[in-house]
């Protein structure tokens, strides 16, 4: 009998998500506003774009909790 793999679920507290968000901003040496403005004008490097998408996901998870 073959066992089906279960999807991986990562649990984070809001505090952990906020800390991760700040670490990401620190890594690209920008504030959230600076990163957002550059994203709006398509002026991000690939690394910065990855950070932006991750932060958007974190913000979605924190929505209503910030």
Question: What share of residues are in beta strands?
Answer: under 5%
- Percent helix, as a range, is 55-70%
Helix segment tally: 3
Number of strands: 0
Largest sheet: none
- Global shape: elongated
- By secondary-structure content and strand pairing, the structural class works out as mainly alpha
Q: What is the string of SSEs from the N terminus onward?
A: HHH
Chain oligomer state: single chain
Parts with pLDDT < 50 across at least 5 consecutive residues = none
Radius of gyration: 15 Å
Rounded mean pLDDT is 91
Distance between the termini: 46 Å
Describe the protein's architecture and organization.
The radius of gyration is 15 Å and the shape is elongated. α1 packs antiparallel against α3. The model has no long low-confidence stretch (mean pLDDT 91). The protein has a domain of 40 residues. It is mainly α and 66 residues long. Helices cover 62% and strands 0% of the residues.
Write the layout of secondary structure elements.
Layout: H1 14-28, H2 32-40, H3 46-62
Helix pairs in contact: 1-3
List keywords for this structure.
0% strand; 66 residues; mainly alpha
Brief digest:
This protein has 66 residues and is an all-alpha fold. It is 62% helix and 0% strand. The N and C termini lie far apart (46 Å).
């Amino acid at each position: 009998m073959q066992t089906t793999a279960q999807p991986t679920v990562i649990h984070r507290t809001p505090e952990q998500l906020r800390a991760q968000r700040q670490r990401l901003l620190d890594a690209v040496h920008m504030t959230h506003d600076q990163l957002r403005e550059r994203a709006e004008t398509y002026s991000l490097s690939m690394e910065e774009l990855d950070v932006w998408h991750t932060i958007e996901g974190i913000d979605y998870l924190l929505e209503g909790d910030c």
